[in-house]
Write a structure and sequence with these properties.
2 copies of one chain form a homodimer.
Chain A (H helix, E strand, L loop, with lengths): L10 E3 L7 H4 L15 E3 L11 E3 L2 E2 L16 H18 L6 E4 L5 H8 L28 E13 L2 E13 L2 E5 L6 E5 L2 H21 L8 E7 L10 E8 L10 E2 L2 E6 L10 H17 L5 E9 L2 E10 L5 H18 L6 E7 L2 E8 L7 E4 L4
Parallel strand pairs in A: 7-10, 15-16
Antiparallel strand pairs in A: 1-5, 2-3, 3-4, 5-6, 6-7, 8-9, 10-11, 11-12, 13-14, 14-15, 16-17, 17-18
Helix pairs in contact in A: 5-6
C-alpha cells in the first residue's frame, strides 16, 4: 500500500542585501526582477531576515521534485507550512541571509524522493522506511517513520555567477503513522514516541548524507540535516524541529547533533496540553475576553504560539467573525490594535488575522521589538 | 412580493487624534479601548485618515438597524463594500477625521429603513419606492429604484461627552432592478438609466431630509446626503457615488447637488468597457505578463482600479495561484514587490493580495505617496 507523502524539495532563494556593497553592484540586483533576458536574476528582498530567490530566464527556479508537493492531500496542513518555515529558520543559523541566496532543491528528483520515502523492498532498495513485516496490528507492524524529505540549496554569488555553497535537508518523522488495513478501509494509527522517531531519523540522516556526498558537486559543501517531528492530524499547530547537524565539507556521517527545544502550542490551551509559560496563556485569555465583548457575537479567538525552550518567540492570532459591515471591520481593527498592544505579550512578533466566511477581512502585525501594531483592512471598489 | 434589500445603517466612529492635545487629554483616549467601566471609549485610530469608533460599556456601538444588513443575501457583494467605503470617503470631505468621531447610525431603526425601502402602498405610506402599477413587463413596470439606505453619525467631543454634530445618509439606486414574476421563478431585469435613477434618488433625498429634520436632535446638524449607483450583479467592481449634497442645519430641502465623477473599472479591461486612462491599463498588462511568467502555472491576475475623473486614485490587485510551497510564496512575494514597483502606476495606493484555494497567502501594499511596497507572507506554526 503506497502512501502519498509530503515532500517538498525547497530550493535556495538567493539572498542579496542592497546595503551590501559587494553584492549590490552585481547584475543580479533584486530590483531587476522580471527582466526577460536569459540570465539569472534574484527576486529582490523584502527584509534583511529573508533569503532572496533565484529567477532564471524570467521564471522562478522551482524544485526538481516539485510535483511531489501536490500529492500531499491529507493529514495536517499545518505540518507543511511549519516544516518549510522551520527549515528556513534552521538554515539561517548556518547560512547567513546576508551572504547566501536561496534556491529550491535542484539535486533530488521527484522519483528519487518518492523512492526514499517508500518502504525498503526488493523493488525499492533505496527506501528509507522499514520493510513491511506483514503485520497490520498497530503495535506489531513496522510503521512508516519518515513522512517527508526536503532539499534547500544555498548559493553564493561571485563574478555574477551563483555557486552552490550549502544545502539543508529536512527529514520529517511521524509522531503518528496513519494506515489502512484495506484499501478505502478505516484508518488506524501506530504511535511513534519522540525518542523512537528521533533515533530512526538520525540513522536515516547518515544514509542520506552518504548518498548526497556521492552526487556530483555535493562532496565539498556543508550539508545541514534537520529533523522534524510531525504533529498528529488532529493538532491545531504543526510539528517542530527537534535536532539539526551541520556537516562540514566531505563528512559522510553525522558527527554531532544539536538539540532544538522548539514547541508550538495553541491558545486557549487545549485540555491535556500545557503552555511553557503560563503568563502568556493568561495574557491571551485576557485579550480574548476583551475582544469577545466588542461585538454582540464573535465566533472565535484562537492563537498559535511558538516557544524556544520557555521563551515565547512568536504568535499567530486568528479571529473568526460573522459577516460585519465594512465600518464595523474598520472599527474592530482599530480596537484590536490598541487591545493587542495592551494585553498580548510584548516584544515578540505577533500577527492577527480577522476572517469571515468571505475570507480575510483585516490583518494586523507587529515585528519583533516594535511596540505598535500596524494594520490593514481589506477593501474593494 | 417583498424583496430583501441591502441596508446598512452606519454609525459614527469617533475620530480622535493622539497628536491632538485638546482631545488626547480626555478619558476617551483610544488607548483605553477595552476598559470595562460604564463609560464611553474610542476604538483608537490606525492612521490620521480614519475615523475612530465609539465603544460603550466595552461594546461597540452597533447600528440601530444592524439586523437588516444580514438580509442582504444576493446580488453583487462588491456593491456592499464600495457603498460603505464610499460613504466614508464622501463624509471625509465635510467631517474632518481630526475633529469628528464615527458612530454607526443610531437614529433609523431596522423597521423604519425596511419600510422606507419598500414600495409605497396603503399599508406602507412611508415607502420611498414607487407603487406597483400591476405590470410585470420589464419596460412597463415601476422598478424598485432605491436598493439601500444607510445612516452614519458624526460626533464631536467636548468635556468628555460625545455630541452628534453631523450625519451622512447614503441612498443606493439600482442600475438594474432584478425581479421575479412568480415566487422561485426566473429572474427578470428592468434597466434604470443613470439619469432616471439619479433624478429619482434626488427626489427621495428631499423626502428623507425632511423626515430626518423632524426627528429629535436632528434639526440643527449638517446632514450630508450621498447618492450611489449600484453596479449590476455581473460586475466585478461595485458601483459609484454620483452626487452628494451638504445640507446645513435646519434646511429641509436639498439646495445644491455636487456631482462626483467616480468610476471603478477592472483590469484587464473587459470587452465593452474602457479605462479612463489607457496608460494605466497598459501598465497593468505589462505587470500581469511579467508576473504570469514567474511560475509554471498561475491562475489569474486581475485588478480593480478606481478613478476620480480621469485620475487613478487606487488599485486592488488580486492574484490567484494554485497551491505553492511556503518558500515559493516567499520568493513570489519578493518578486512581486520589485515588479509592482517597476510596472504599476506610481504614487497611488495599491494593494496586492495573493490567494490560493487555502485562502490568502500573502499581501503587499503601498500607501499613497510611498515608493516601496511593504509585504506580509501569511504563516503558521
Amino acid at each position: 500500500m503506497k502512501r502519498l507523502r509530503t515532500f517538498i524539495a525547497l530550493a535556495a532563494v538567493p539572498l542579496f542585501l542592497a546595503a551590501c556593497g559587494n553584492l549590490s553592484s552585481s547584475s543580479m540586483s533584486g530590483t531587476s526582477g522580471g527582466s526577460k533576458s536569459g540570465g539569472t536574476q534574484l527576486t529582490g528582498q523584502s527584509n534583511d531576515g529573508d533569503y532572496e530567490g533565484v529567477i532564471k530566464s524570467g521564471h522562478y527556479q522551482t524544485s526538481k521534485s516539485r510535483g511531489v508537493t501536490n500529492s500531499q492531500d491529507s493529514g495536517n496542513t499545518y505540518n507543511l507550512k511549519s516544516f518549510e518555515n522551520g527549515m528556513l529558520t534552521v538554515s539561517k543559523k548556518i547560512f547567513s541571509t546576508k551572504k547566501y541566496v536561496f534556491e529550491e532543491g535542484q539535486h533530488l528528483s521527484t522519483s528519487t524522493v518518492q523512492n526514499w520515502l517508500d518502504r525498503q523492498s526488493k523493488s525499492n532498495t533505496t527506501g528509507l522506511n522499514p520493510k513491511s513485516n506483514g503485520s497490520t496490528s498497530a503495535t506489531k507492524r513496522n510503521p512508516i517513520y519518515i513522512q517527508a524529505l526536503e532539499e534547500q540549496d544555498y548559493m553564493t554569488q561571485k563574478n555574477n555567477k551563483l555557486t552552490l555553497s550549502g544545502m539543508t535537508i529536512g527529514i520529517a518523522v511521524n509522531s503518528v503513522d496513519y494506515y489502512k488495513k484495506t484499501q478505502y478501509g478505516a484508518t488506524f494509527e501506530t504511535k511513534i514516541t519522540k525518542a523512537e522517531g528521533e533515533a530512526y531519523a538520525k540513522k536515516a540522516a547518515d544514509t542520506v548524507l552518504a548518498r548526497m556526498r556521492k552526487k556530483s558537486g555535493l562532496k565539498n559543501i556543508p550539508i545541514v540535516i534537520a529533523i522534524y517531528r510531525q504533529a498528529s492530524n488532529d493538532s491545531l499547530v504543526g510539528g517542530n524541529f527537534i535536532a539539526y547537524s551541520e556537516n562540514k565539507a566531505g563528512t559522510a556521517k553525522v558527527n554531532k547533533w544539536n538539540a532544538l527545544g522548539e514547541k508550538s502550542v495553541t491558545f486557549p490551551v487545549q485540555s491535556g496540553s500545557s503552555s511553557p509559560n503560563s503568563n502568556d496563556a493568561s495574557s491571551f485569555s485576557n485579550f480574548k475576553s476583551e475582544v469577545e465583548n466588542f461585538f454582540p457575537n464573535l465566533s472565535g479567538v484562537t492563537a498559535q504560539a511558538h516557544y524556544s525552550g520557555n521563551t515565547l518567540t512568536g504568535m499567530h492570532v486568528n479571529i473568526t467573525t460573522q459577516f460585519y459591515s465594512q465600518t464595523e471591520i474598520i472599527s474592530f481593527t482599530q480596537y484590536l490594535q490598541t487591545t493587542a498592544q495592551k494585553y498580548l505579550p510584548s516584544s515578540v512578533p505577533i500577527d492577527i488575522t480577522v476572517s469571515s466566511t468571505d475570507g480575510v477581512q483585516s490583518f494586523l502585525n507587529r515585528a519583533s521589538g516594535e511596540k505598535k501594531f500596524s494594520s490593514h483592512v481589506f477593501n474593494s471598489y
